[in-house]
Amino acid sequence: MDAARLLFSFNGRINRARYLAIQLALLTFWLVLWLKSPFQQWEILQAGAVIALLWINTATTGRRLHDRDRSGWWAIAVLVVNPLSYAYYALFFGLYFGVDVSAARQMLLVMGAVALSFLQTLIVIELFFVIGTDGRNRFGEDPTRNPGKSPVVSHAQSFNVPDFLLQRAGPVARS
User: Fold this and answer.
1) pLDDT in tens, 32-68
2) C-alpha angle 136-141-146 in degrees, rounded to nearest 5
3) Angle, helices 74-96/103-124, rounded to nearest 10 degrees
4) DSSP state of 141
5) Shortest CA distance to 168 belongs to which of 126, 122, 141, 134?
6) Mean pLDDT in the chain?
7) Residues 6+ positions from 15 with CB-CB distance below 8 Å
């Protein structure tokens, strides 16, 4: 799979490991851009970098959702929940540090913070911890298997990893 298709395409599936690697790279690039941006004088280039990062994030999240046999459109919901939660937590902590609000509004804010935390936890579990659909699904072939081969990753010998560590979790397939 070439890099452009891996990062920019919404078609196909990617597994957890590749998704995690891409997300960590995006997070690192985002932090570098935010802390010490080489484009500080050129806002257009900085905006272009942000748009590219958002596109890559949405595309890879959509493809990871495809691996779970879910519609890629849920990637937009994931993209919306994160900034919404940041804004909400900023408001919540602002109230904690001295903004005067009635008790009923404070209770609503606390309930909203708990609900957003629960939703973010479900998103993290779904994207990073739950294994993809075993075998082919409506979005394509299983990215962790080669057709006609065992469920063991084929490049395991190059890393000297024992085969039993690379087997998929779950019941043994019966012939």
Assistant:
1) 877 766 656 667 777 788 889 999 999 999 999 998 8
2) 110
3) 140
4) S
5) 134
6) 77
7) 67, 132, 143, 144
Answer whether 64's CB lies under 8 Å from 26's CB. Answer: no
What H or E segment, with its residue span, contains residue 24?
Answer: helix 16-35
Sort residue 102 into left (φ over 0), alpha (ψ -120 to 50) or beta.
beta
Q: What is the share, in percent, of the chain residues with pLDDT greater than 90?
A: 13
Q: Is residue 37 within 8 Å of residue 46, measured between CB atoms?
A: yes
| Three-state secondary structure of 90-135 | HHHHHHHCCCCCCHHHHHHHHHHHHHHHHHHHHHHHHHHHCCCCCC
pLDDT at 27 > cutoff 50: yes
Cα 127 to Cα 20, 69, 97, distances in angstroms: 9, 12, 34
| Whether pTM exceeds 0.70 | no
Amino acid in the structure at residue 124: V
Residues 113-159 pLDDT 10s:
788 888 888 888 888 888 888 888 888 888 887 655 444 444 444 55
At 161, list the tokens. Answer: 């990893």
Q: Which neighbouring-strand residues pair with 41?
A: none
